[in-house]
Amino acid sequence: MGNPERDGAPAETAASIHEFYTASSWIEGAATEQLRQVANLPGVRQIAAFPDLHPGTFGPIGCAVLSERLYPQLIGNDIGCGMSLFALDLPRSKLRLDRAAQKLRVLESAWSGNAAGYLAEAGLPSDAFSEAIGSIGGGNHFCELQVIEEITDDAASGHDLAPQTLLLFVHSGSRGFGTHVFRSVVERFADGLEQGSTAANRYLDDHDRAVAWASLNRRIIALRAAVALRADIRTVVDSPHNVVERQGDLFLHRKGAAVATTPLVPLAGSRDSLSFLLKPTGCKPEALASLSHGSGRKYDRKSMLGRVGSTRSDRERLLRTSFGGRVICDDRQLLIEEAPDAYKNSAHVCDDLVSHGLATCVASLQPLITFKKATEPEGTESWKRQRKDHGRKWR
DNA sequence: ATGTTC
């Protein structure tokens, strides 16, 4: 389990790595190799690795890294990316699945709301990537309608959560904002930024704005979905997982690792498996106040193209779930890359965290409608025109 | 992941 605690040890000594998974967990060798590489970066003191660990572009996803130096590449381009959970005041008996799925297609169009006003309210420049506010983006991002399947801890009642409560679960990030911040710093500072330096402070300021932008984005996405479903929402938890924070003279980086200082932390399954709501115990300092953010990828996107969805009938299968749920994803490649088979078993990930004493499971959440991407309109020709006009702005 | 391939 890595090296013992040390203080002012020479740079050639690797940081300690605490792994919160078991021999039966699906952990790729490439991911643990990346962990070792991060442990050998100058100034890295301690690493917590979680059961959703998998290889990433700049380092492993599913870990927290405590370091003397600031490494923007450990956070990546999607600064502030996270999961937000909202409770809907809509009774499940009123929900018509196919009708609701059709209504959620509105999420694909540009948001016509007061982006500037919301941005200003969040302390952000009113023109900061305002065109993209309320948009989900690509990759693993989604907006999912869920229902609470089971309550497994009394903590749920304190949050007014009960079986059959409908939820909106939004996974999205800072879109072009975070990418812009990341590009402005990463090529020039491969060896990380020194604590207290102008570059570090500038990055942290920009980072904090991207985190606020991403959080607002998730809230607007949920508001749009709630309006489409003619319901009100309240926030249950806002849980970022690509963030860095100051801890004294050190930097605590989280990459695909949820901040575990909130009362509840959501753990995303796939669109055809349960998500979970966790209550962090906070009793293991070596976990660096972090938890898994989801089930984690099992197979990379490219290899998924050879695994599923080669026939039309198999792609049609991917638009329905074993829970009787619906998937809105008109993009064939995205449908395949994000197939449920691409992900680890979320229940196993949850069990690993619970058995390591990091969390208790409060609720299991069943997916009903997963919105990914719509290219087919929601039924009116005006939708097509709106898209066309939006695209023209960039010509 | 990405105003992605404007």
Automatic annotation (TrEMBL):
Q: Name one Pfam family in it.
A: RtcB
**Binding site residues for GMP:** N140, H141, F142, C143, E144, H241, N242, S275, H293, G294, S295, G296, K372
Q: Which reaction equations make up its catalytic activity?
A: a 3'-end 3'-phospho-ribonucleotide-RNA + a 5'-end dephospho-ribonucleoside-RNA + GTP = a ribonucleotidyl-ribonucleotide-RNA + GMP + diphosphate
Q: What GO molecular-function term can you cite, just one?
A: GTP binding
Q: Map out region (Disordered) in residue numbers.
A: 376-395
In this chain, composition skew of type Basic residues spans 385-395
- Record-annotated residues binding Mn(2+) 1? H141
| UniProt KW keywords | GTP-binding, Ligase, Manganese, Metal-binding, Nucleotide-binding, RNA repair
Q: Which SUPFAM superfamilies match?
A: Hypothetical protein PH1602
Name its GO BP terms in alphabetical order: RNA processing; RNA repair
Q: Could you name the active-site residues?
A: H293
Q: Which Enzyme Commission number(s) are listed?
A: 6.5.1.8
Known cofactor(s): Mn(2+)
Q: Cofactor binding mode, per the note? A: Binds 2 manganese ions per subunit.
Chain sites annotated for binding Mn(2+) 2: H171, H241
**Which of the seven top EC classes does this enzyme belong to?**
ligase
What NCBIfam families does the record tag this protein with? release_rtcB
Query: What name does UniProt use for this protein?
Result: 3'-phosphate/5'-hydroxy nucleic acid ligase
| Organism of derivation | Flavimaribacter sediminis
